[in-house]
């Protein structure tokens, strides 16, 4: 084989190795980790104690320390909770959150009703550009409230 034949295969292999199979919030919860506020530096304690299997799973559930402030929370200037009212029956916890007084605590939270959409939260930066999108269809009312209290800026 010549280098031109092997090079694409090598590049593909390197790309596949660099893609992480990040766990969902539910996966992490079932493993005993809270993905919303677990910092990767915490996982290092498992590594120091030779608990490599737990360390590997922890690393899949953690948030990079350098993206977060001293309290361990990244704060976003704005968030948009998007959902379809036709799906409230399938997501009673999301409906309960929206219909409660809880959203009024967050002046920079917007609720948008988009036909056919499962519930998501879009987190925006100061320029109103979407930084992250979270699938929240399995979250309960308290989880939505706790996440927003932790990650939505109060300014």
- Cα-based radius of gyration, to the nearest Å: 19 Å
**What structural category do the secondary elements indicate?**
alpha+beta
Number of strands: 4
Instruction: Walk across the major sheet and give the strand order.
Output: 2-1-3-4
Uncertain spans:
6-21
Shape: globular
Tell me what the structure shows.
This protein is of the alpha+beta class and 155 residues long. The chain is 39% helix and 14% strand. It has six helices and four strands. The chain has helices spanning 3-18, 25-30, 40-48, 52-61, 92-99, 141-151, and strands spanning 78-83, 109-113, 120-124, 130-135. A hairpin with a 5-residue loop joins β3 and β4. The longest helix has 16 residues, at 3-18. The radius of gyration is 19 Å and the shape is globular. Mean pLDDT is 80; it is low at 6-21.
How would you summarize the topology of this molecule?
Elements: H1 3-18, H2 25-30, H3 40-48, H4 52-61, E1 78-83, H5 92-99, E2 109-113, E3 120-124, E4 130-135, H6 141-151
Parallel strand pairs: 1-2
Antiparallel strand pairs: 1-3, 3-4
Provide a quick synopsis of the model.
The chain has 155 residues and is an alpha+beta fold. The chain is built from six helices and four strands. α3 runs antiparallel to α4.
Looking at this protein, list some descriptive labels.
single chain, 155 residues, alpha+beta, 4 strands, 39% helix, 14% strand
């Amino acid at each position: 084989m010549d280098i031109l034949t092997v090079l694409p295969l090598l590049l593909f292999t390197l790309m596949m190795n660099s893609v992480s199979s990040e766990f969902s919030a539910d996966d992490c919860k079932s493993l005993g980790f809270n993905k919303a506020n677990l910092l990767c530096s915490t996982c290092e304690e498992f590594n120091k104690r030779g608990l490599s299997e737990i360390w590997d799973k922890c690393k899949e559930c953690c948030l990079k320390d350098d993206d977060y402030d001293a309290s361990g929370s990244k704060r976003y200037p704005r968030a948009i909770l998007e959902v379809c009212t036709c799906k409230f029956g399938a997501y009673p916890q999301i409906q309960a959150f929206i219909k409660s007084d809880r959203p009024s605590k967050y002046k920079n939270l917007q609720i948008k009703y988009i036909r056919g959409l499962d519930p998501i939260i879009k987190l925006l930066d100061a320029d109103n550009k979407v930084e992250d999108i979270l699938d929240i269809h399995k979250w309960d009312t308290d989880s939505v409230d706790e996440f927003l209290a932790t990650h939505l800026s109060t300014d």
